[in-house]
Amino acid sequence: MFKQEKIIKRVEPLEDEKIENRKPKIQIYLNCNSVKKDFLNIKMYLDGENIKHKISDKKIKYTPKNKLKIGSHIIKISVVISSGETYDYSWNFTIAEKEILKCYFGNLHSHTSYSSGQGTPTEAFDSAKNMGMDFLALTDHSRALNSDEKWKGYKSASNKFNKKHKKNLAIYGKEISIKGIGHLNLFNCDNMDKLKINRLDKLESVIDKYDDAILCINHPGKSVYNLKDKKHLNKNICIMEVGNGSFGEKYNRYEKYYYGMLDEDWHLGAVNGQDNHKKDWGKWENLTVILAPKLKEKYIFEAIRNRRIYSTESGTMKLRFKLGDIWMGSVVKGYKRGN
Q: For the chain, which terminus, N or C, has the lower number of CB atoms within 10 Å?
């Protein structure tokens, strides 16, 4: 009567699916006229334990009374077809920890008197906090940060601020200038404080050695397209400014270069840098928003690397979305863009 491979029409949750609901509706849809007529005996198992299921016209279903544990689960059904044949089918799904990502507002591009700006690192971090920002990155020019005194000052100001304030985050990097490319902010660079990175081949060598480095393309121009064939760097050069400056005064937008690099098959998150050169850290509403589970450096850098980040010109705009279980900013495997 039935071909065994056609007995099961579909199942929920799907095979190998990751879900967050710990009391999921487990359902088996059957290719039959009526379950009660076509099947003599039905048994259903959850992780090897016989469970009491319910039967509707063409469906077998079960909803656990208690929350299932985090991890993998196996569902099995064993049925006796009206012809007397026995048919077994099993599949698995996984219950994952619920991932709660929060929107943190801040700025990844700012300067102090350590290079071409004003004020001290401590003043900058305090100003950003007082203006309501969640995080601030100091990124003075690398040539000025090659002195031990200034680099230690960066670290000291950041560490003191983070010990004192648990609801805000101070981070730091440096702005490097690459001949033929332009300016980039370099993060995760504690081991690179004395390196002179001013040519593309030097940058490639640094990334090859320090593969946890994170870079942002700042206020891009046409020269950014000199990177288009350097896709091996895209893992580390993972974000680009689409806005830069003082939103209420001197401000520029760079979407055309951002979209141009996307057209070259680069994967980049869009950010907005205030590029502060005055004592106005946090004054403007052009901001970068990062989606992370906690406001800690390791989670923020992980989010940046995975492009869970966006540019905004509003201090209140929150944006979160997923494609199935894939968060915004992810590279969707198997997808080919049309011509």
A: C
Give the dihedral of Cα atoms 152, 158, 160, 163; nearest 10 deg. -140
Which pLDDT score is estimated for 338?
Answer: 59
Domains of the chain as residue ranges with CATH: 4-95 (2.60.40.1220), 102-327 (3.20.20.140)
6: which DSSP letter?
G
Higher pLDDT, 56 or 88: 88
Residue ranges of alpha helices (H) inside the chain are 35-38, 121-130, 148-164, 200-209, 255-263, 297-305
User: pLDDT, tens digit, for every residue of 247-261?
Assistant: 989 999 999 999 999
Q: Are 57 and 28 in contact, with CB atoms under 8 Å apart?
A: no
Structure tokens at 165: 């304030």
Alpha carbon distance 1, 125 (integer Å): 74
Q: Which residue has the tokens 């081991």?
A: 191
Mapped onto helix, strand or coil, the DSSP state of residue 126 is: helix
Averaged confidence pLDDT in the chain: 92
Phi, psi of 296 (to 5 degrees): -130, 150
Helix and strand numbers, DSSP H then E, in the chain:
6, 22
* Residue 61 pLDDT > 70: yes
